[in-house]
Amino acid sequence: MNDKSHYFNPERETMSREQIEAYQLERLKETVRHCMNNEFYQKKFKEAGITPDDIQTLADVRKLPFTTKQDLRETYPFGMCCVPMRDCVRLHSSSGTTGNPTVILHTKKDLDEWANQVARNLWMVGLRPDDVFQNSSGYGMFTGGLGFQYGAEKLGMLTVPAAAGNSLRQIKFIKDFGTTAIHAVPSYVTRLYEVMQEQGVDPRRDTKLKVLAIGAEPHSEEQRKRIEDMMGVKAYNSFGMSEMCGPGVGFECPEQNGLHFWEDYYIVEIVDPETLEPVPDGEIGELVLTTLCREAMPLLRYRTRDLTRVLGRSCPCGRNHVRLDRMRGRSDDMMVLRGVNIFPIQIEKILMQFKELGNNYLITLTTDEDNDNMTVEVELAEMFTDDYNRLQQLSKDITRALKDEILLTPRVKLVPRGTLPVSEGKAVRVVDKRKVYQ
């Protein structure tokens, strides 16, 4: 591709809606036929009373059965593989701490396509072969490490596999290697900035950073803006999940007006998580994805449990792949408190509006005298104040704002910076102690 082009793969990225849908139908038919090589799908299709010949239009995708994480666990380890095992060259797996892990297999072609997706995303936000890409994501079974590694190499960048943690070393690499782009979870970017401050490092003055790729944990627009203000560069939201391959499934373009989901690789549906029926564009529902280019383990109508909505199907950047809102939470990590549905990201959205607060917070749910309660602990910004009256007023203001957002009154505890645990992986934001009473 031409370094001056806005597109890594112009032919696929700039398809019209008609071209996208025609391509999807062709790939869907091939994928469904390919799935018939597998006993799991043979049984699923028989139970649903359908055959591959029943898929004649794109709307016919709704005739197909859903697949779930539980299906992956019940067929552990290789029961959903659609090619001979000798054709598989890698697997990734979840931790499986509560039962069988989920395993995803890849052929060489699957890995090549995955690298192309990630490279497309990084190119889209302005990265080129002369950039230096530092990946502070975990490697090993976690897909964030190798996914971004192979994508960055595919694009042609010098790639620094720094892995997670060890902030002092991360900062040394950023300075010494002339790092221009970093991939990290949002909570770790804020931690990295805090360590930079402690070391007297100004990211604007002392580094060559120009792009941040952030994802893997829910974060609000307020959190993104705070990260951009701290680091002095644009932070682009990234979406991925190991069941779909890993990072690369969706990514923001420079317009930052939603995540482009690559419809030449996936069919995107948004459904009501209760009825499983489609919801209108603009309405929040559960994201359901069907793979279109997967050899080893194609997944049909996979219920991601992530909640989002369609924002549009065109963009000033010239791409017509569907744009989705940032993930609003998950249908299976929703907190239900006194009959009210609450997502952690709603809490974060409010906290980030107060400049007096730091970046670390913890939500604790407890049962006291048969009543469920929420306590929100949040760290103060460094050197804010020790004026008791001012702190008391701030606590009241935060409580009022949270009540307006979640319709319940939480307990708010303001604590000094450094009080709450610091994670260098995905941040733990909710501790539900109610389970001991159930």
Describe how the helices and strands are arranged:
Layout (H helix, E strand, L loop, with lengths): L9 H4 L3 H19 L3 H10 L20 H6 L13 E6 L9 E5 H17 L7 E4 L7 H13 L2 E3 L6 H10 L4 E4 L1 H13 L4 H4 L4 E5 L5 H11 L2 E8 L4 E7 L6 E3 L4 E6 L13 E7 L10 E7 L1 E3 L10 E2 L10 E3 L2 E3 L1 H8 L5 E12 L2 E10 L7 H19 L4 E5 L14 E3 L6
Parallel strand pairs: 3-4, 3-5, 5-6, 6-7, 17-20, 18-19
Antiparallel strand pairs: 1-2, 7-8, 8-9, 9-14, 10-11, 11-12, 13-14, 15-16, 17-18
Helix pairs in contact: 5-6, 7-8, 8-10, 11-12
Can you tell me about this structure?
31% of the residues lie in helices and 24% in strands. The chain has helices at 10-13, 17-35, 39-48, 69-74, 108-124, 143-155, 167-176, 186-198, 203-206, 221-231, 344-351, 388-406; strands spanning 88-93, 103-107, 132-135, 158-160, 181-184, 211-215, 234-241, 246-252, 259-261, 266-271, 285-291, 302-308, 310-312, 323-324, 335-337, 340-342, 357-368, 371-380, 411-415, 430-432. Helix 6 links the parallel strand 3 (132-135) and strand 4. It has 438 residues and is of the alpha/beta class. The strands form 5 sheets. The protein has a 9-stranded mixed sheet.
How far from one another are the termini? 58 Å
Net shape:
globular
Secondary structural class: alpha/beta
**Total strands:** 20
Q: Which regions have little confidence, pLDDT < 50, spanning 5+ residues?
A: none
Question: Cα-atom Rg, whole angstroms?
Answer: 23 Å
User: How many helices in DSSP terms?
Assistant: 12
The average pLDDT is 93
Major sheet characteristics: 9 strands, mixed
